[in-house]
Write a structure and sequence with these properties.
single chain, 73 residues, alpha+beta, two-stranded antiparallel ribbon, 2 strands
Length: 73
Amino acid sequence: MHNLFIGKAAIKLPDNIKIYINDEATIDINIPDQYIRKEYLRHPDYIPQKSWVVFGIGAYIGIYTLYAAKRFV
């Protein structure tokens, strides 16, 4: 079923973030890691603060970077 969405549909995430689905891992792993399991919020060092500079270095599609950017807009 995911193949219907890959590369064809933008989805809206919390914080009014919109992304295009690039592969099944985005739906099955990356989005749940950030928004359901909250993997990056389990340790205080990964919770973005107002004075932070967050770099997206191309590790994957940047869901955490988008989240951090929207946190203080």
